[in-house]
Design brief:
CATH topology of the domain at 434-483 and 641-796 in chain B: Aldehyde Oxidoreductase, domain 4
CATH superfamily of the largest domain in chain A: Beta-grasp domain
Distance between the termini of chain A: 53 Å
Helix content of chain B: 25-40%
Largest interface: A-B, 78 and 94 residues
CATH architecture of the largest domain in chain A: Roll
CATH topology of the largest domain in chain A: Ubiquitin-like (UB roll)
Order of helices and strands of chain A: EEHEEEHHHHE
Mean pLDDT of chain B: 94
Strand order of the largest sheet of chain B: 3-7-1-14-11-12-13
Radius of gyration of chain A: 19 Å
Helix content of chain A: 25-40%
Strand content of chain B: 25-35%
Oligomer: heterodimer
Number of domains of chain A: 2
Chain lengths: 197, 798
């Protein structure tokens, strides 16, 4: 079948709480539809093999690689993209934590990381550091911002559940979460260190 | 800065009036956009009426093109044009027809293959259609008849007698495009450039040596894997071209596209947004000349090409290398002579190789005091993806070699590897291999910091080796590296103070994730006295923004930063002059700082009040910052860099001798920063250097093979880049600043500095654990297992 004899078929999707009608071809993925028809650019093509997580969206609350998911099979399951995460005037705590920790460089992968973290923390509010690391390992950040991404997600977890691991109430993001603060030092006077443990 | 700036609870932008923005973790102006999916990239752009092009690529590494049949593709409904190398040849003779060959140094690469393909993945034809689906389906109908030729994949094979020759003739331009570049190119072989360095009398040095050691080291090609692939949109209207592209050096794109379409540079407009990762992949024109030609073919309509991940692997790579290094030294470790031969796998076209191999050439001497040095560095055509700069710019390959070599010298002398380095490291006042005097250099202190951090126990090789369980062994290793940044080099900037006293930094530095727009805003705020919240930095637009050489080489904070600081000084001078005229006092009696203009006592005027009262409309100034230098073409002696960047790393690894797996259990990388402008972005870059170093050390290699010589791992399923779980379990980064304090401290780029130190430190740690050095990267389980087996049987080793 070619594009010329694969006519576009109307399809109803629920994206970010809105019911929308799109007209994908049979082989179009959810990523194609989001970017080409709905002008939602937060989900991004990275590897188109389900290996990098740049195209992550939430389908029925679970992370999905929108680059592999045919639009036709989404059905009535609600789709959430990073554009639909914040409430009016209020960012999701995970988004806020990414800002507070500057957990990005080129930022192309950021929406995918945020959505993966949101889904995990909604399912497992007490997710451990190891659990978070494992869950985030399906998202790749080539710039290597992982230290601050981990800091941000741990901070968001505590922010969402209201307390730190040791039970003390959450009062605000620490400067340099769960690690010594990192400031520059003079030659020979000992290094500033950002521990990643 | 966007209106959203300031919502984050820490690192307020404002501070008290007069407080410096530089050196603080100020808010990132567009941080919110980055988290809500509204941070713009060129890949998000699809202009109205845009056509889409898809490329047909060669499956063969080396073949003559017998025929390209595009009949069915041309007849496909929705296809607007199909372009092949034959079209390029035909158009070449038309007065306004495109010039079919391009390349940043040598115009050796056809926009689409003409007569022959030289690597698997080389574009052979392009289909332009109303949508991507149609273009792709029509492209699938194109049949190409190839006549396969013998192919070579490594630089040593390509230099061997009888090797297939990729280019019978190496074309050069009349005007050299790179003032820092020395070109030695010859027809009849596969060498597209040869860099020579000659210092002292290397034969006499070897003759005076107590010991001489020689080794060979190898590294494979790697791919940059920017998650945003190359994407370019081009429109040709009349004698103007509009290019939107994901590129790190818009003016390099402009000059290439101008040459390709035979237009003055000013008729080519290049716009860039945020770039979704580059790491060297987007420094030189790679996709733009082709898309410009396609746009010329369908004049009037935009043409867009977005590469797939597999195509990204066929676009640019890090050079493979073979490093043969020979050093003569005294029994106390003093180095007397070094001879290095470096062969670089340039891939099928020269791209920036002629320059990369220069930097990789002189840098192969290492950060050591060696009076007699002889270096020959060759860029060698191979039938692979063309190689270009890649974070570290040829230093990661030679550092892998010279730092393993340094440890082997220490082992030979039964010395502590850190102690040996202390004896031989360059110190301020010493001369680098190019003869340039070393200044502002602290590598010995960085090494101590790194060693202290991981608990380095002094002693010769194996002093830190620990068997933690049967078959599980730990070892530690260190490395010290030096890197230069391009010179001569020029950055220009305009500062535009508007009537409401908002400041626009009009410059062409590209935001590639390094935080340039934030850092330049900080420097501009401090230099002008305009509060940071009112400073905006443009995206590059060659029609509007001031010229810059390139966003690469860890030079933007250094070169553009100084240009911004000078322009800020000029702006305050201009405000003083205008205020003096308004108030009837000499400019020297006017004090301009922190958005206040004062002459004598009293509150004075704000910048906006001066602009309004003096009816200035605004004030715009511009500045330039240029560095000098260059090397002698025969001896490689001269000035190579404004500053010597340097870093030290120390690693602890655990090797499973049964499986060959390497776990980095601890790592510290200490980089010299001079002066840190935005600590968080500086940390992010240093942490990124760790991720790149770990990938190079343990997993990343492009593997060429199969019947046709294709790339076997051109997807992220098979070419693994580090995830959060692949980083060392514990690692730290440090940035050492000028011990004299921030005033007068020089800015050292950090974007690449730490990266080359990482694989070498890990390699030396693995060597201690195994009791044997592995000479080739990456240290994947099979290779480590084999080395462990060989080390266990001394008779099998050499």
């Amino acid at each position: 079948m070619t594009a010329n004899d694969d006519p576009r078929q109307p399809l109803r999707l629920v994206v970010n709480d809105d019911e929308v009608e799109v007209r994908p071809r049979g082989h179009h993925t959810l990523l194609d539809v989001l970017r080409r028809e709905l002008d939602l650019f937060g989900a991004r093509p990275g590897c188109t093999a389900g290996a990098c997580g740049s195209c992550t969206v939430l389908v029925d609350g679970a992370p999905a690689s929108s680059c592999l998911l045919p639009a036709q099979v989404v059905g009535a399951r609600p789709v959430r993209t990073v554009e639909g995460l914040a409430r009016p005037g209020e960012l999701h705590p995970v988004q806020q934590a990414f800002i507070d920790h500057t957990a990005f460089q080129c930022s192309y992968c950021t929406p995918g990381f945020i959505l993966t973290a949101v889904s995990l923390l909604e399912r497992e509010p007490d997710a451990s550091r190891d659990r978070i690391r494992a869950e985030l390992s399906g998202n790749l950040c080539r710039c290597g911002s992982y230290v601050k991404i981990m800091d941000a997600v741990l901070d968001a977890r505590d922010r969402m559940r209201g307390h730190h691991d040791d039970g003390t109430p959450y009062t605000g993001p620490a400067a340099g979460y769960a690690r010594p603060s990192c400031s520059a030092s003079s030659a020979g006077a000992g290094a500033a260190q950002a521990a990643h443990s | 800065m966007t209106p959203e700036a300031g919502t984050a609870p820490r690192a307020r932008a404002g501070g008290h009036p007069g407080m410096k923005a530089a050196g603080r973790r100020v808010d990132v102006g567009d941080a919110r956009d980055r988290t809500i999916g509204r941070y713009p990239y060129v890949i998000d752009r699809v202009p109205a009426g845009c056509l889409h092009a898809v490329l047909v690529r060669s499956p063969h590494a080396h073949a003559d093109l017998r025929s390209v049949d595009v009949t069915a593709a041309r007849a496909t409904r929705g296809v607007v044009a199909v372009v092949t190398g034959e079209d390029l040849t035909r158009w070449q003779d038309q007065p306004d027809g495109p010039f079919p060959y391009y390349g940043p140094v040598l115009p050796d690469r056809p926009v689409l293959a003409i007569g022959r393909v030289r690597f698997a993945g080389e574009p052979v034809a392009a289909v332009i259609a109303r949508d991507v689906d149609t273009a792709r389906e029509a492209a699938a109908t194109i049949t190409v008849d190839y006549d396969a030729l013998p192919a070579v994949f490594t630089p040593d094979a390509a230099m061997a007698p009888g090797a297939p020759i990729l280019h019978e003739h190496v074309p050069t331009r009349d005007v050299m495009t790179f003032p820092d570049l020395v070109l030695h190119t010859e027809d009849g072989g596969n060498v597209c450039n040869h860099f020579r360095l000659r210092r002292g009398d290397v034969d006499a040095g070897f003759a005076a040596s107590d010991h001489i050691l020689s080794h060979e080291f190898r590294t494979p090609q790697q791919q940059h894997v920017p998650l945003e692939p190359h994407v370019t949109i081009a429109t040709v209207r009349g004698d103007t071209v509009d290019i939107q592209t994901s590129a790190a050096s818009p003016f390099t794109v402009r000059s290439q596209v101008a040459e390709t379409l035979k237009l003055p540079e000013s008729r080519v407009r290049v716009r860039v947004l945020n770039v979704g990762g580059a790491y060297g992949a987007k420094t030189y024109p790679r996709l733009e000349p082709l898309v410009a030609v396609l746009a010329w073919a369908v004049r009037g309509r935009p043409v867009r090409v977005e590469l797939t991940r597999a195509e990204e692997f066929a676009t640019v790579a890090r050079h493979s290398s073979v490093v043969r290094i020979r050093t003569g030294f005294r029994s106390d470790g003093t180095l007397l002579a070094r001879r290095v031969e470096v062969l670089w796998g340039a891939g099928a076209y020269a791209d920036i190789s002629p320059r990369t191999i220069k930097n990789g050439g002189y840098s192969s001497a290492g950060p050591y005091d060696i009076p007699n040095v002889s270096i020959d560095s060759y860029a060698v055509y191979t039938n692979t993806t063309p190689s270009g700069g890649f974070r570290g710019y040829a230093i990661p390959q030679v550092a892998w070699a010279y730092e393993n070599h340094t440890d082997l010298i220490a082992e030979h002398l039964d010395l502590d590897p850190a102690e040996l380095r202390h004896r031989i490291l360059l110190r301020p006042g010493d001369a680098f291999a190019t003869g340039q005097t070393i200044e502002d250099f602290h590598l010995a202190a960085l090494l101590d910091t790194a060693c202290d951090r991981i608990g380095w126990k002094p002693g010769p090789a194996s002093a830190r080796r620990v068997v933690v369980a049967p078959g599980i062994v730990r070892g530690k290793g260190v490395s010290t590296i030096l890197k230069t940044t391009v010179t001569p080099s020029t950055s220009t900037v305009a500062l535009k103070l508007d009537e409401d006293a908002n400041l626009t930094v009009v410059c062409s530095t590209v935001e590639i994730g390094q935080g340039a727009r934030t850092v330049l805003a900080q420097l501009a705020a401090d230099a002008t006295g305009v509060p940071l919240e009112r400073v905006h930095v443009t995206y590059p637009d060659s029609a509007v923004t001031a010229w810059d050489q390139t966003t690469s080489s860890s030079r933007s904070t250094l070169m553009m930063g100084v240009a911004v600081e000078r322009a800020g000084e000029r702006l305050r001078g201009e405000l003083a002059r205008r205020a003096g005229a308004l108030l009837g006092v000499p400019a020297t009696a006017v004090d301009v700082r922190a958005d206040r203009i004062r002459s004598g006592l009293g509150p004075g005027l704000s910048y906006a009040e001066l602009i309004s009262r003096a009816k200035l409309g605004g004030v715009t100034v511009s500045e330039v910052h240029a560095s000098d230098g260059g090397l002698d073409p025969e001896t490689g002696q001269g000035v190579v860099t404004p500053h010597f960047y340097h870093a030290a790393a120390a690693a602890e690894v655990e090797v499973d001798l049964e499986t060959g797996t390497v776990r980095v259990v601890d790592l510290h990388v200490e980089s010299y920063a001079g002066r840190v402008i935005h600590p968080t972005f500086a940390e992010l870059q240093c942490e990124g250097n760790v991720a790149f170093g770990v990938g190079q050390a343990l997993s990343e290699a492009m593997v060429w093979g199969g019947e046709s010589g294709a790339l076997l791992n051109d997807s992220l399923l098979d070419y693994r880049i580090p995830s959060v779980r692949d980083l060392p379990e514990t690692f730290t980064i440090g940035m050492t600043e000028d011990p004299a304090g921030p005033d007068g401290a020089r800015i050292h780029g950090l974007g690449e500095t730490g990266s080359p130190a990482v694989p070498a430190a890990i390699g030396n740690a693995v060597a201690e654990a195994l009791g044997a050095h592995i000479h080739e990267l990456p240290l994947h389980p099979e290779r480590v297992w084999k080395a462990a087996q060989a080390a266990a049987e001394p008779s099998a080793g050499t």
